[in-house]
Amino acid sequence: MFETSVKNYQSMEANTLDSLVVGLISPPLQCCGVDGGSDFKNSTNFWKNDTYGDIEYPVPCCKMNQNYAISDSTCPDKFDDNNSNYKNGCRGPLKEFFLKYMDYVAYGLIGAFVLLVSKDESQ
Questions:
Q1: What is the pLDDT of residues 77-110, one digit of tens each?
Q2: Would you state the pLDDT for residue 103?
Q3: Distance CA 120, CA 123 (A)
Q4: Rounded CA separation 69/113 (Å)
Q5: Where are the membrane-spanning stretches (predicted)?
Q6: Which of 6, 43, 65, 68 is the most exposed place for a label (fewest CB within 10 A)?
């Protein structure tokens, strides 16, 4: 799903579902694209001339605080290692995130199953 969103990303101004998915997921995971910012280089959907004009990577590739505000004012005019995550793909962080929370889901389902079985036996 995220790969499709990256492929179809336009701009945060576009307010498309794919653009919002990329915009909500990338900053907290400190990543950009699936395998890095280069995913957007040849994208025909990416609007490089939104509010900031002729940007190299999408705004969500900039480092942001927990309120989704850009941390360094030099980004997105200039992307570098200090102000952005353009070199960090989201594939690894997304995989880690899902693996971490899938354990909780699995334990919850096992617990619910045990409760249902024990409730059935008591009737």
A1: 999 999 999 999 999 999 998 888 888 888 899 9
A2: 84
A3: 6
A4: 43
A5: 101-118
A6: 65
For the chain, residues with pLDDT lower than 70 are 50, 120-123
Distance CA 68, CA 20 (A): 12
In 3D space, the residue among 73, 68, 76 whose CA is nearest the CA of residue 47 turns out to be 76
Contact by Cβ (8 Å): 80, 57: no
- CA–CA distance, 17 with 2 (Å, rounded to integer): 11
Per DSSP, the residues of 6-75 read HHH---GGG--HHHHHHHHHHHHHT--TTTSGGGGTT-SS--SSSTTSS-SS-GGGB-B-TTS-BSSTTT
CA distance 107 to 109: 5
Structure tokens at 80: 């570098």
